[in-house]
Request: fold
Amino acid sequence: MRHPGSPSDRNQLAIAAQSLYLINLLALPGIALLTLCFLRWKYRHSRNTLGRCHLRQACLITGWFCLIVIGGGVTLWGLLAESAAGISMILLYLIVMHTGFVLLGIFALAKAISGQHFHPGNRCCPETRFDR
Reply:
């Protein structure tokens, strides 16, 4: 029987955050994003630093996804949509970038399941700065 303070209970929020990130990319875009943002707002003052860290990183990476994939795709469309080769390049860009973000999400989900913090950049979460 699990106890309320067990590590697996602390991992649930982190797992939910990374799962919603992947669901947003693969199945239900928008709906999963709204749920992810709601959870980020709801647990912004939680004592669960692992869950807050994963929520923050999932929202941050979703923002980067929008900027790089959607913004880059629209920009390339404006520049290269006149030719068949340009459209092929746009599709290749979108497929490669989307796949990269999905792989990043899979790696983050594995970190959440194992109870580890996830920091894809050089900087740690502000929530975990003092936990070391």
